[in-house]
Amino acid sequence: MESRPACGIEPPKGPDPAASRQWTVASSLCFDIGLWVPEIIAYVLSGSVTLFADVLKCGNEILATFFALLILIRMRKSGKFCYDYGMGKFETSTRLMTGFVMILSIIIISIHATHDILVPTPIGVSGVIIAVPLMVISICVDTYLWRKNYRHFLSDPSPILESQWRLRRAKAFADIAVLFALVLSLSLAWHPLAVYIDPAASFIIIGFLLLAGYREISSSLPDLFDKTLEEELQIVILRHLAGSYNQYRDFHGVRSRRSGSRVHIEIFLGFDPDQKMGDVQDFIDSLKQSLEAEIEGSEVFVIPKRR
Length: 307
Description:
Elements: H1 17-46, H2 49-77, H3 86-118, H4 125-155, H5 159-187, H6 197-224, H7 231-243, E1 250-259, E2 262-270, H8 277-294, E3 298-304
Parallel strand pairs: 2-3
Antiparallel strand pairs: 1-2
């Protein structure tokens, strides 16, 4: 019996890294949606604020994974874009938007949790019975996807893959916290203080959301506003220029920026008017190749410039 493709995406045939990444993210999205619906039902039946927090957290994760899949599909369909830098900005903008949605979710969960602490109510047993096996399944699959996305990131680093493996890692630990809180609430239901376990545990989910939201926003803003490269990479560029100082006459500066997973570097140099254009081009090609080999994911442009 043939397996159906995840979210309409065919499984990769052959050693295509882009197809494998796309398949992994598509499978993650289908898995998240598949568990999200029964978790919502479990929340409605139990009234658990911890499950409510996890439902909102999963909604954020579905949004982030959907954007990641959208970008991967767009990048795989065509190597050239109408807006070469725009795709990187779109990738960064989606991470920023996801971060702000997470912050909004934190506010909603905090209000709900505070209300349940002030007006405690026992959670419904039927909802917990549904939620516990869901959490066990979620922990196993999220751990697997965390490790798989991390392997993809090591072989081909990009902001999308980095956010995906970090998201899965945080989700696995959050699921463990939810499972522990539900089991503890159910096993200690006879104790009068048991009603406070669930709302107190929801603040653990808030912590995961706060950390993830801060990471998404803080890592996106510098790229969105075209912050220059880190000092370590600038030192690499200057070291290469210093090692070949006799090949050019004037140094007019370096301009650098990130666009998604790509690093764009523009070097402005002045050359002796008596130099042959062939010699100038040989030096430009040599400098470009050496820098791109040392700075991963970089595109280097050496631009001759007059005073």
